């Protein structure tokens, strides 16, 4: 970057990819008044993408800067990072492509947000780059999409409404559609690929966490127990629920650990579930999950899953991704069931134990539309904007954080609420 050239506020990297295109589209409105650009490996593809979004949004994008940067060229990544204040990274799977971008951003003094839902990647970045990011005054925040803004900031929201000490939260994800499923894809190939490698390398997590957290948390009581693998969620009109395999729990627990380590606040225990309308759906999903888990353990199995995504998901994952119509009609809701104690029962020390079982309950909800891509891209852009505008309300002077820890004291929940998300109390504490 030339000495007298002013930095752009935001660059969207990987802009010609599936998530990148939707990030540009949502960014047109959310980044209004700011200087932003797009980046990727191919200038021609980027030009085509900008032209496509220009037509779709009916907005002149001819002044949007186009920057070329290649994941295999560290110098080009550094030059790209030096051209902006915050980089929005849409290039996944992040376990393969994320680290060089994080490294370039830290060295350039540029903040970094992404939509990773890959616990191994996120926790390794925290382990290896947190201190350097602090020294450079850079915020690196992953999981800024549907994985896991609703779950992590939803837990922060619940605690704000509770007015007491929260012991535990159970989350129930519900995804519905205004129209019957048309047989098309629900997931883009990139999301499918990330899930395959995430499960294949799940055994990396335990040693990673041992290095990340040198001391164990106190054994807070009462412990939040796992529910039956398949159980009825009575407050969801009898929908059936099973454990949710996504990254929500790992992200929320990292935020809670941050609050304990830095504020000596009792961490909230959390378990995540996903709900289905019928037992038939549960059995179908269980069958796919078992086949998926077995095949992910072997190289040949992973190759087959990657080669034939439609076959192994009954058409739910594909290279083309979901259609505009199916995305616009998809709706999500995450219900949060919180338990704890009234503020009158507060303890002197966070490590002290309560003498009585929880006396207070609350149910809250975070909802919106198009969880996989629309809501994800809105949350991603707003996460970048929050760093630009409210870094003084974020922890320390920089570092690698999950979104709950990064944005708990900012207005991100309020900004999300103005842009398609709803945070609400269903049943007040009693």
Automatic annotation (TrEMBL):
Pfam families from the UniProt entry: Sacchrp_dh_NADP
Saccharopine dehydrogenase NADP binding domain span: 10-141
TM regions (residue ranges): 279-300
Keyword Membrane: yes
Any one Gene Ontology BP term: glycolipid biosynthetic process
GO cellular component: lipid droplet; mitochondrion; plasma membrane
Domain of life of the organism encoding this protein: Eukaryota
Keywords: Membrane, Transmembrane, Transmembrane helix
Family recorded in the similarity comment: Belongs to the saccharopine dehydrogenase family.
Protein name: Saccharopine dehydrogenase NADP binding domain-containing protein
Native species: Anopheles arabiensis
Upper taxonomic lineage: Eukaryota, Metazoa, Ecdysozoa, Arthropoda, Hexapoda
